[in-house]
């Protein structure tokens, strides 16, 4: 009952990878090193370019400031282009400095709020230098104890800070506001859910959109519903894709719950977001114990497989079954597509496009991992979770 999608449809997929996936990361218990870990942003981009070379799916690389601060952003841009990729979303970071202990854009002290706004203005300058469209803001702001600060006043300060940042954007740039229900704050978070992110981005204007990170919801949340709703409202700017078992685990996408990934991609396609450059698919993952470049290759291939399954849904038959209120038939049609082994069709697609039919095997056989392990000593740390 599943249908065969066209190669043209399949080929619309674009996934952005993130620079921090290539650095060493870990938990607060331990950061394990990996031989060959990049020592600077240039090497992170070189590793990301390997993912694109192997899969043809990942032409852009998100960066995080200050983790990827360099002296010459034009050089970073040219370096990426020389390797066949481009710099992607610029992520701000107001969660690692002492000043931000009690918040950044929401901090009670105007001096800290000003500093946080200025950091975002620096990010916008970096976007201009690197030819980037999107500024992604995730705030660690929140409180740990009831009464610690005024929830209402913090919302007002947040609105003010976001407006100052938004006002600095060029006409072709976007502000993307990411939400997360908890961590590092444990009582309340200032942007905890899609509703809050939606309310602020609506107030800001057309150039402001919501980021949905799949790891940022309470267990049991129906994420595909949020996808459908934000697409209806024209406010879904980007995804951060990853897997989770417990909290914000940042594991390889599609490995904890492949069916959830399929359901999310189904709503993306149904809502017209697939192939739309205004709805970015970004990987936000950390590879604490597995090899990083292969971990990223596995991730983009998992997204590709989920999308290929969704494109195999017989949408006409599904619409008819839904009209008829034929519950079991409608579910059967969906599950048929989910159960399709799409790997042969994707191997064909790759062959037709001059890509390795088995990207993982091709990469592992290339000798790249052995080469960087020899050449690079003393890799950078990617995350704050040490
Ligand atoms: C926060 C987050 C956000 C950050 C990234 C490193 O948990 O998802 O997107 O920028 O992790
Ligand atoms: Mn994220
Ligand atoms: Mn996260």
UniProtKB/TrEMBL annotation:
Q: Does the keyword Transcription apply?
A: no
Give the protein name, as stated in the record. L-rhamnose isomerase
The record's keywords, sorted A to Z, are: Carbohydrate metabolism, Isomerase, Manganese, Metal-binding
Which superkingdom?
Bacteria
NCBIfam families, A to Z = RhaI_grampos
Say yes or no: keyword Isomerase present: yes
State any GO BP term from the record.
L-lyxose metabolic process
Please list the residue ranges annotated as the Xylose isomerase-like TIM barrel domain: 71-248
One GO molecular function term? metal ion binding
Please give the organism.
Answer: Agrococcus baldri
